[in-house]
Design goal:
The complex is a heterodimer of chains A (76) and B (186). Chain A has 76 residues and is an all-alpha fold. In chain A, 68% of the residues lie in helices and 0% in strands. The N and C termini of chain A lie far apart (47 Å). Chain B is 66% helix and 0% strand. By secondary structure, chain B is mainly alpha-helical. The chains are: A mainly alpha (76), B mainly alpha (186). At the A-B interface, helix 2, helix 4 and helix 5 of A face helix 4, helix 5, helix 6 and helix 8 of B.
Amino acid sequence: MMTTCQHVIEHLWDYLDGELSGEQTEAIAAHLAECGRCYPQYRFQFAFLQLLVRHRPRIPPPSRAMVDRLRRMIKP
Amino acid sequence: MAAIPALHRFALFLAHDAHRADDLMQETFARALVHRAQFVDGTDCRAWLFKIAHNLHRRTESRASRELQQDDATLEALAAAGVYAGIQDTDPAGAVFEHPDLGEALERAMIRLPEEYRTTVVLVDLEDQSYAQAAEILGLPVGTVRSRLFRGRRLLQAELVAYAQDAGLLRPAGRIAHDDDMPACD
């Protein structure tokens, strides 16, 4: 399957989030291994997501209202 | 690129708010990139961008609380590529995201993020929920979760990059997209 740069960029976050099928994942991985334009964007987005994970404990939580809404969903 | 100051003025007029105007500009450029084949050579590029901005603004106003749709996620992904294009020459691998000073900037950016985006980013990026799981938690279609997640990430990135440039951690952007990505605006 031919994978274009535009397709990869449109689905880069899906790829990083593990949301694609096995076939789609393989196609994008193969493209990234070969493409000097898309691979740096992959590294950039990966570094950004790692920043979020590293600062996980410091991030303000969702508002009380949102937490209450989620609780009501769990225990209606 | 010469159209940017004019488009910004127009966006400010439409949105009446600097943050929303920036958002509108980003969306306008993302849409222009997607539909660049529709631009007619020899016509006024600024007018074309104004029309896109106006249509987007009108759509936003008319749909009010209507949810973001699947197509918006694609636009957000392309808009994020625009953020990257602005700094790819100075920081192609995102090394700035490892700078220790960015932690507090991230906290501030998260606080400023509209709640619908922050909630989605927290669920997926911090709490390791899949799109489907987040959709179930929030009672939203998966496409809407994806759109909100992508927009939240893009807004965070734009704010962090702006902070890093102001703080001297990154050289200011010389451009926001590849020269060959957009029709020339004289």
